[in-house]
UniProtKB/TrEMBL annotation:
Gene3D superfamilies: 6-Phosphogluconate Dehydrogenase, domain 3 (1.20.5.320)
Region ranges (Disordered): 24-49
A matching Pfam family: DUF7482
Protein name: DUF7482 domain-containing protein
Record flagged with keyword Metal-binding: no
Stored PROSITE patterns: PROKAR_LIPOPROTEIN
Length: 494
């Protein structure tokens, strides 16, 4: 299931202004007497510039560079001022359109996005800054550092190596230093096992050794499980819910509390990192550099089966690095919304096997020990994510429905479920990468009256619930479904 993405427009400066800035190599000196030109100012360093023959816009080299960059990531230059873009019938576009649509001027006359000067204002913002984001292909991806770990469980798998990523931390200073997401709520995820006020049940314990390898006291993941999703029905009419017709197997399964090798959770409290909690999802277990190196340039169709037996299902490519250099991993991103803004995020782990299979995530049952339903109350470690069972699906002739959304549509292979996230950094202060799933079902009344639409904002959803147009699955009360999904935020598109 993939979604085609358009890169969000990077607007340019007014070419007329650029013309004024694109003079000769050296600056002119002060004005001479009676309006005559004064002596030339000091010559700056001469930079190597591309030939002038490729300049096709007014404003010189600087304007052309902006124009080339814009053309590479948007269809803005294909638009006639005031006219909408033409999209392919099978294109599910959720990225914002260029500001020139409906205007009488081209996109080059718009300034930079307000988020360039203040990330809390409208415009694109990369939130997970530890790597790069690529939205030029059929799927959006992020390439981030790959780290090595070692299991010290005392169990059968003791001493085995694993590979992981880091996306979030409760350490505000280190989050800023490493380009990670800061989440104060992670501090409230370290809950004790039932009946034992001291034994952890959702956050592993660990430390980093003299080589920078993360050593954890528990947690193993079996990546050899073959992910499968089969539905006995394709009937999406009315309030029908295809989730109830599924037979699934998650593609990776983590150990639970009570296992001889300890429980797996993406969360690790690192004792010699000021005892902070890090979100460190596992990407591969019991593998070495030779196992991973074949996939440095991606995973071919012929390699798919072997790769999935040792890797997280969202891995596009993985390279452990050579001669002590750090490795990298490229992961597929999901698209969703937060307070009306399209966003990109990772989906790495889930507390229940069903969403783990649907999201291509690790089934991590220990995450279920973290309390849900508390949202932003005292000691809550979660934030809410809103999904839909029976949102609009595509037209039978293959035309993409502009209001498409929900798990019925995703199960039919039409694209991702386009879930709605609560607070994220720069938009709210209550961000947590651990999302408490609130699954909604549109009522027959809402469908009959044409109220069912693509939802993009939390409080609009809650308003539909309050009016009786959204309920829980099967007409049940709306609220938490008791499922946690680990979805670190990566980028805001608007």
């Amino acid at each position: 299931m993939t979604i085609k993405y358009k890169k969000l427009l990077t607007a340019t400066f007014v070419s007329m202004i650029l013309t004024a800035c694109s003079g000769d190599d050296g600056a002119t000196g002060p004005q001479g007497p009676q309006g005559e030109q004064g002596p030339a100012g000091p010559q700056g360093p001469v930079a190597e510039v591309p030939p002038e023959s490729d300049i096709t816009v007014a404003g010189g080299r600087l304007a052309q560079d902006f124009a080339d960059r814009t053309a590479a990531i948007t269809n803005a230059f294909e638009l006639v001022a005031g006219s909408p873009a033409e999209f392919e019938a099978d294109e599910d576009d959720v990225a914002p359109g260029p500001p020139s649509v409906g205007a009488d001027i081209p996109v080059t006359y718009f300034g930079p996005a307000p988020s360039d000067s203040n990330p809390r204002l409208i415009g694109p913002v990369q939130l997970l800054k530890s790597g790069t984001v690529d939205t030029s292909g059929e799927m959006a991806t992020t390439t981030i550092p790959l780290y090595e770990g070692r299991l010290a469980s005392g169990g059968p798998k003791d001493g085995q190596r694993f590979w992981y990523i880091v996306t979030d931390t409760s350490d505000r200073d280190n989050a800023a230093a490493l380009g990670l997401n800061f989440s104060e709520k992670l501090a409230f995820t370290d809950v004790a096992a039932p009946g034992d006020t001291f034994a952890p049940s959702a956050v592993r314990r660990g430390f980093y050794d003299e080589d920078g390898v993360l050593v954890t006291t528990g947690g193993a993941v079996d990546f050899s499980s073959v992910r499968s999703i089969e539905s006995s029905s394709t009937d999406t009419s009315g309030t029908n819910n295809l989730i109830s017709a599924l037979t699934i197997t998650p593609g990776a399964i983590g150990t639970d509390v009570g296992d001889a090798d300890g429980f797996y959770s993406p969360l690790v409290r690192i004792s010699n990192a000021r005892d902070h909690i890090y979100n460190a999802p596992m990407i591969s277990f019991n593998t070495d550099e030779d196992d991973l190196s074949p996939y440095c340039d991606g995973i071919s169709e012929d390699e798919e089966e072997a790769a999935r037996a040792i890797l997280h299902d969202s891995v596009v490519s993985i390279c452990p690095g050579e001669d002590g250099e750090p490795g990298t991993v490229t992961l597929e991103l999901a698209v969703g919304f937060s307070f009306g803004r399209p966003v990109l995020y990772l989906s790495t782990d889930a507390s229940v096997d069903l969403p783990a299979a649907l999201e291509g995530a690790v089934f991590a049952p220990a995450l279920a020990n973290i309390p849900v339903g508390r949202d932003d109350s005292l000691f809550s470690g979660i934030e809410r994510i809103f999904g839909f069972t029976n949102g609009a699906t595509n037209d039978p002739d293959g035309m993409v429905h502009p209001q498409r959304q929900g798990f019925n549509s995703a199960i039919l292979g039409e694209g991702g479920p386009l879930q709605v996230l609560g607070g994220i950094p720069t938009v709210a202060t209550d961000y947590s990468p651990l999302w408490d799933l609130n699954l909604g079902e549109w009522t027959q009344e809402a469908i009959d009256n044409g109220y069912r639409a693509r939802m993009t904002e939390e409080f609009a959803i809650l308003g539909m619930v309050e009016r009786g147009f959204l309920t829980g699955p099967g007409g049940s009360p709306y609220g938490s479904n008791g499922i946690i999904i680990n979805c670190p935020i990566v980028q805001r598109l608007l």
